[in-house]
Amino acid sequence: MTARVHETAIIGFNVEIGDGTAVWDNVHIRDGARIGTDCVIGEKTYLGPNVVVGHLVKINTSAYICTGVTIERGVMVSAHVVFTNDRYPRATTPDLERLRPSEADETTLSTLVCEGATIGAAAVIGPGIVVGRFAMIGMGSVVTRSVPDFHLVIGNPAVTVGYVCRCGIPLDGGTEAFGRTPGTECQSCGRPYQMVDGAILEGYPGSDRDRDQ
Q1: Considering the domain 1-86+100-164 in this protein, what is its CATH number?
Q2: pLDDT tens track for 125-136
């Protein structure tokens, strides 16, 4: 099995693309990027130099994924998502005499999207943050700080409005899901969750481990 790369895609030097991955039309993948197996890279998407994409990742059309981004296994990046990597960008030097270089430098910040997370269409992801495991970011959101595991965030700036199961269904009760009891179950698939010191973990209340481990 090999990767499928559309003839109009632009692939840089030293790019790794795993078996079973499909790279669609007019995608641009810059030097040093690494993409895992069985991924989909949608049309007109841009991957910057040295971006890392894990296995089983779906990136929809026209996403912009810049240098410094690492995307773990099983993540969904919806259409027109934009990542950023510089908190205080300028086009030129302070004297306005020359353009700043486009290459990564000491101001470039890293962003990590952890396994199973979903980023909704047209969301903007700020630099230097972590999107937690199986977190879900609503469409059009502007994410300016890290998102914990299993949190559902929306808005500008994005804030937590609830929690989501691995299957993607919000846990009943929103942010009050754990208000009366330390545990709850997904009403769709029955997976149990607990809150421990403010963190959402998989498993029944009182268990001493995350059931995914």
Answers
A1: 2.160.10.10
A2: 999 999 999 999
